[in-house]
Design brief:
It contains nine helices and twelve strands. The protein is α/β, with parallel strands linked by helices.
Length: about 325
């Protein structure tokens, strides 16, 4: 079987598939002025997604994460979950959501074949949550998190973007919360994009500070699986939950890269930063183009760089994190 392996012997078994770049939140680090439609976009159809996933699965993709924007804004979200979960070779289907529709739809998504869910909760303080997201719905989102645990997802994770001056004093609140909750809490370092340089310089905080704190207090680091995401995960005997740290500015972060991205309009991105992507859409309308599609994906992968070079201050052409699925 052909496999997705780049020139640096990195193996790619994880696809992050965006199905929309629309979002209904106004997070201060991503879309502070809200979603701005710059052109009339036709997002990938269910048929195109099905053809895309068959090709990726035949190239060794085992895990798919459905992203946005906010993926649940698509009315056919559950149908898309079902298509992916029924694709031969795909072993795990996950999504990342802001939690707006989660309480109402957790069971429906689970029944459609969703295995795991990440919910963005950037603060456990309702006022700070409102300040960051522009939405005064903290309790509604947390009800959705509880519903996800009760429904029975294999994994429920909470994503929190680390920001100095906003949630950098929340660690103890989070730790108290996961003591009795089987949830993985993930702190993600704020990343610089084309439109947030001033915000980044003011609020960026290194995840190493949390890592040092955890190691001093009896937490130990887990060994990840080949199709896991980029988080360093820590466990503690006294806690049901786990802590994950995603630190894209750390040394050798890209060494273990195992994921590719396809945007909501069908462009393959080898990295979240630094390149314009390769159009796949002309090969998604017909099942008979699958071999050509696979060849184009493999050819594109030969151009993947060794690093995103974020630590050198390069942010590429990424306008904001919702543009190709974060």
């Amino acid at each position: 079987m052909q496999q997705l392996i780049d020139n640096f012997d990195r193996k790619f078994e994880y696809l992050r598939l965006s199905i929309t770049d629309e979002c209904n939140f106004k997070c201060n680090y991503c879309l502070p002025d809200g979603y701005q439609r710059t052109q009339k976009k036709q997002f990938l159809s269910e048929f195109e997604i099905e053809n895309l996933l068959r090709a990726f699965a035949e190239l060794g993709t085992k895990k798919v994460r459905i992203t946005g924007g906010e993926p649940s804004l698509r009315k056919d979200f559950s149908s898309i979950i079902s298509i992916i979960s029924n694709t031969k070779g795909i072993q795990k289907v996950a999504t990342t959501t802001n939690g707006f529709n989660l309480f109402k739809q957790a069971q429906q998504w689970f029944d459609a074949g969703l295995d795991a869910i990440n919910v963005s909760v950037d603060s456990l303080d309702p006022k700070t949550f409102h300040l960051i997201t522009g939405k005064n719905i903290f309790q509604k989102v947390m009800q959705g998190v509880s519903a996800s645990v009760e429904v029975g997802f294999k994994q429920v994770k909470i994503n929190s973007v680390l920001m100095k001056g906003f949630n950098d004093t929340d660690l103890n609140l989070y730790l108290d919360w996961i003591k009795e909750q089987p949830i993985q809490l993930r702190f993600i370092e704020l990343m610089q994009t084309d439109d947030n340089a001033d915000f980044f310089n003011k609020h960026h905080l290194s995840g190493n500070l949390i890592k040092e704190n955890l190691l001093k207090n009896g937490w130990t680091q887990k060994v990840g699986l080949s199709h896991d995401g980029p988080a360093q995960v820590f466990t503690h005997i006294d806690y049901q939950g786990e802590i994950g740290l995603i630190m894209p500015y750390s040394k050798d972060f890209c060494k273990s890269c195992n994921r590719l991205r396809v945007s909501s309009t069908g462009r393959l991105h080898l990295c979240l930063f630094g390149e314009e992507g390769v159009d796949l859409r002309d090969l998604l309308a017909c099942e008979n183009d699958k071999e050509a599609l696979k060849s184009r994906i493999l050819a594109a992968l030969s151009n993947k760089k060794v690093s995103h070079y974020l630590q050198q201050g390069e942010v590429g052409g990424t306008p904001h994190l919702a543009s190709i699925g974060g």
